[in-house]
Amino acid sequence: MAEGFVIHELIFDGVRSLADAALTGTPLESYAGSLAVITATMISCVAILGVFMLSMFVILWLERKVWARMMDRRGATMDWRSLWVGEQGVTAGEWWKMLPFGIGTPIGALNRWLNKVMGNESEHATVDRVGNRSWFGAWWALPGFIQNIADGMKFLTKEHMVPNRADKTIFELAPFLIVTSTVVIIGFMPFSAGLYAINPELSVLFAFAIFGIAPIGVFFAGWASNNKYTLLGGIRSAAQLTAYEIPLLITVLGVCVVTGTFNFVELGEFQHSSGSWNIFLMPLSAGLFLITMIAEVERIPFDMPEAEAELVEGWWTEYGGMRWGLLFAAEYMRVWAACIMFSVMFLGGWNAPLAGTFSAIPVFGALWSMPGVLWTLLKAWATFLIFVIARAALHRIRTDQILEFGWRYLLPLSMFQLAVAFVLRLKFFNAENIDSGAAGGSAWDGGTGFAWTIPLIITLVSLIVFTVYIKDVDKDPPGRPYHVYTTEPAGTHLAGKE
Amino acid sequence: MWITMGPQHPMTHGLWTLRVKIDGETVVDTEPELGYIHRGVEKICESRDFTQITPYCDRLCYASAMTWAHSYIYAAENLLEVEVPERAEYIRLIANEMQRIASHLMWLGAYTPDTGNLTVFVWCLRDREMFLDLMQELGGSRMHYNFPRVGGVKRDLPIGFADRARAKTKMFLERMQEYEMLLDESTIFLIRTQGVGYAKAEEMVNAGVTGPNVRAAGVNYDVRWAHPYSVYDEIDWEPSVEKQASIKGADCYDRYRVRMEEMRQSALMILDALDKIPGGADTHYSPGDEMILSKAPNRAPEGASGFHHFEDPRGESMFYLQGGGEGRGKSPYRMSIRSPMFITIPFVAKTMIGYKIADIPAIMGSFDPCIGETDR
Amino acid sequence: MSDKATGASWMVSADQNESAAKAAVSAINSHFSKAGVVASVLKHSSGSKRSYVSIECPPEHWLALAKWLRFDNGVNHCSMITGIHHPDGGADKGWEVVAHLMRMPVKNQEPGVAHVMRGGELEGNDIPMEYEVGIILPPSTTPTVPSVQSVWVGADWNEKETWDLVGINFEGHKDMVRVLNPHDSPVGFHPLQKQHRLRYDGFNEMYDDAQGFGRKPIDADKVK
Q: What are phi and psi of A155, to 5 degrees?
């Protein structure tokens, strides 16, 4: 779908005309074009960074507040409360009384009214007793959102220490490497067909090449801290990230082969004009991408490099203050970049699902055709929920098991997926049916008229294979370890019976 | 190279040091160092009355305070030759089994984050709150109860305690299914805990390790039926036992399963005891009534001694008391405490050799260390 | 509590306990009668009043007795070895070492097999039994007892603790180190000896002074 609004060009045009107007008649006149390009690029980079960071705060909020609280309390709860309300209806310091000239009085009245209307009682005695921080029902007020901003401010106030015999240059250099390489990727992330910072021809290659610089920074951090624990963490991290780069890159290669381009924007466009999202075409790739990305960003279940139980914080133990804060932010930036990449590469990016059908519906259709950037963000946030569930429900895998998994299972699977991608593109792709209009095309119809033939077949086959594979039929005890079995099936224990 | 895990370290579940010699990621040698929270309880208690010692014993193993206080009280009753009324024994059994559940939940809540799952930590603490509430009703505080007295218990079951206990225990039995659904079939948990930390039954017993650690190796030995005390012979229960997976011994997964089953057994014991308690669970006798507390002498003759083996959630604990005679008879001449973990930790330290660093918290956590009782 | 299938009880009965104790005592007495080892059956004075084996052993025969107990009587668990200082015990009794042992019917199992014992079915050397061995030493500045580290692995750290806190030497113990006290404690400092007294020794809050206002440490005028 052609985007009427390409921010990069808008900025560029504006800056160009500004540059022309400002520099006519001055000795710099002939450089107006180049200056405009540089300035426009910088402005659009900053704008995209702003969009990225604001949307990134949402994922921090999703992980730390929304999911955790919904899991336990069956109702979203608020954290702003500590500002407004406090424990058991008594504020932790009625701060509004300190405002001069009594301008805080309406705040106090609002506070009391909110407490009365959206009460404080919970039917769970435990919840109620520990100072239930909630106004039930105030889901619209984005509970807990600004906590992360407060955390960022907290990091600024902490002490920066360099260990005594640490290699000072490398110690200071490592966070720069990691954070810079992560921020550079943001430049390539398209939020919609027109909303991106820069769009080189081979943006996918660039992005993944830069994504892979971070392991060096991690290793530097682990080594330079003069600490056996961080050294172990850095070594584990280098091994793990290297092991998972390769399946990641081969998976991405498979996607690019099917799509026919190394450009992010065209990847998104292709999924519309060919009629099917890549996730249905290559579900195995989607799964591999998610798993390798979780390993690349070092989240549970792959967070052995920073395993708290053994290494305290792993390779970033010795960093304090904002350096730690930046590393922490860099981890989430990588997670968010991974989510956006997933939504662009597999979930169709800024394209609304079934756009042609739904936009025709009177009122709902207008909602459905909301700007593409919102679709990208929604899909990326939904992808992030998968990351959160994995983190909440799974254990940490041991380093040698992680490496074994990466080299012996993921690498062959990604090679297989690459072969499948070649076959798909060469044999089943119907180039005449590409259609960039409102309803999309039907390039994967495999000769039949039905636009979803090939994706449907592939998805069904994958689901069947998956179901068969996860069903555990072998109940025989010996054969442990690495064999999923239990002495009794879960949930069937009856007390006292063998 | 030698790395030092501890004394401040998230893995250690308490204040001790484990010096580990590693070759890459493999553990080649270990050296535990204990004694960081040695508080001299044995010495202090030589200047305390028998009643004053009970709070000290609560604080020995703070994760399992009720059972340690009872362990001491049984030994003191041996020394002072006291008969305990049957209703008091039932109340003690209910309290001890609740503490066993709470202690195992604390263990699970600390063990699963060691292997990486942070969710179960909060679930376990949430469920442990239920039992802490119940024990608070009995003893007055959430962690150090000072509940038993020489000759009985401090006070009777409060009004409504039986209903609350039944409701919470039944809810807990259902909640256990949630834990098992998350942990038993999670491949990652299985590959982290199966195949690591093998320990054989005979070796363990020779090394002084007892309790759930030995029951994970296929032998259902339990002090509660071997040397019966309290009213365990009147309650319907079974010592939980787990088949070991390999000829090399019991691994961490077996120890995890045996504790889950023990929690279930303890819950059933509580329900059964509430039904069978003499005088009914809904009557309330006032403190000091002879139904719950019998008169006890407060002096022990010189040369008298008493000891008692007790099934603690971590193994077999024992107190040995020697009487002080006329002059100082109100205090024990010597109080000697046998802590299961003091003996288990060196054993586990040797078990860890040959595995990876990442297995250290998995193995150490599966033996359920509590340093309060280790260092006394 | 009994099992409906076999009718045998889970609990070890009082008769089994009594007979096992008597059998053990007669075996010990017949074996070690000339060595000055005296074994007798005593009963706990409260609760279920079970019997246990109480042995008095002179220090020189302790290792032999330990080996016999382990290999011929099945005593496979060393629960605790502790020491007591008796400064006022008279000419014969200056130190005492008390060892608590247990016999547990525990055998290595095959994988996938659980050995479900029922207490009522056990017999002979399988019946669990508690043992208490008392070794009296005359007053001395270097009380010594042979070490049973080679017989039970569990005795190792128990003996370390006893030496560390009480000061009784264990002859033949490899790698004797301070285990609860700091490593750099003064040589000869063993806190559980009776000459070391607590700073507020002999003061009893409950009876003397509930708030403790009037209490003074024993070294009040000596320590700054």
A: -60, -35
Question: Closest chain A residue to B113 measured between Cα atoms?
Answer: A309
| Structural domain of B343 | 2-375
Please tell me if residue C111 touches chain A, with a CB cutoff of 8 Å.
Answer: yes
CB contacts, 8 Å: A478 with chain C: 111-112
Smallest CA–CA distance from C113 into chain A, residue: A477
Residue A74 lies in a domain: no
Residue A277 lies in a domain: yes
- Chain C positions in Cβ-Cβ contact with residue B42 (cut-off 8 Å): 165, 192
Q: A283: domain range?
A: 154-435
Interchain CB contact of A75 with C (< 8 Å) = no
**Are residue A197 and residue A256 in the same domain, yes or no?**
yes
Chain C residues in contact with A498 (beta carbon < 8 A) = 114, 116
Q: How far apart are CA A192 and CA B374, in angstroms?
A: 61
Residues A116 and A180 reside in one and the same domain: no
What digits encode the pLDDT tens for the residues B45-59? 888 888 889 999 999
pLDDT averaged per 10 residues, chain A (length 498): 63 81 75 80 86 85 71 39 43 60 80 64 49 47 68 83 84 88 87 82 90 85 82 84 91 92 88 84 92 88 72 75 85 90 89 70 70 87 88 83 88 93 84 68 72 85 87 53 38 40
Domain boundary among A435, A468, A485: A435
- Classify residue A10: in a domain, yes or no: no
Domain containing residue B20: CATH number: 1.10.645.10
> Which chain B residues in 302-321 lie under 8 Å from chain C, judged by CB atoms?
305-309, 316, 318, 320
C-beta atoms of B356 and A398 within 8 A: yes
Residues of chain A contacting C112 with CB distance shorter than 8 Å: 477-478
* Parallel/antiparallel/unpaired status of strands B148-149 and B152-153: antiparallel
Chain A nearest C-alpha distance from C179 (Å):
24
Q: For residue A481, is the peptide bond before it cis, meaning its omega torsion is within 30 degrees of 0?
A: yes
- Residue in chain C closest to B218 (alpha carbons) equals C114
Does any domain span residue A69?
no
Cα distance between residue B100 and residue C83, in whole Å: 31
CB-CB neighbors (< 8 A) of B236 in chain C = 1
Q: B80-115 burial string, b = 16+ CB within 10 Å, else e?
A: bebebbbbbbbbbbbbbbbbbbbbbbbbbbbbbbbb
The residue type found at A358 is F
A141, A166, A188 — which closes off a domain? A141
In this prediction the ipTM stands at 0.87
- A14-69 pLDDT, tens per residue? 888 887 887 777 777 777 778 888 888 888 888 888 888 888 888 888 887 776 66
Neighbours of chain B (3+ CB pairs under 8 A): A, C
Q: Please count the structural domains in chain B.
A: 1
Instruction: Point out the least confidently predicted range of B2-16, B92-106, B299-313.
Output: B2-16
> How many percent of chain A have pLDDT more than 70?
74
A478 touches C at CB < 8 Å: yes
- Answer whether A477 touches C (CB < 8 Å): yes
Segment A295-347, tens digit of pLDDT: 888 887 888 777 655 666 777 778 878 888 888 888 889 999 999 999 999 99
Question: In 10 A of CB A107, how many CB atoms?
Answer: 15
Q: Which residue shows structure tokens 């003064």?
A: C186
Backbone angles phi, psi at B101, to 5 degrees: -65, -45
Q: How many domains does chain A have?
A: 2
Shared-domain flag, residues A424 and A325: yes
**Inter-chain CB pairs, B–C, below 8 Å:** 193
Burial of C163 (0-12, 13-18, 19+ CB in 10 A): buried
Residues in B closer than 8 angstroms to C180, CB to CB, are: 34-35, 38, 375-376
Q: Which of C2, C51, C55, C153 to mutate to test the interface with B (most CBs of B within 10 A)?
A: C153
The number of helices, as runs of H, and strands, as runs of E, in chain C is: 4, 7
Report all structural domains of chain C as residue ranges with CATH numbers, in order of start: 14-156 (3.30.460.80)
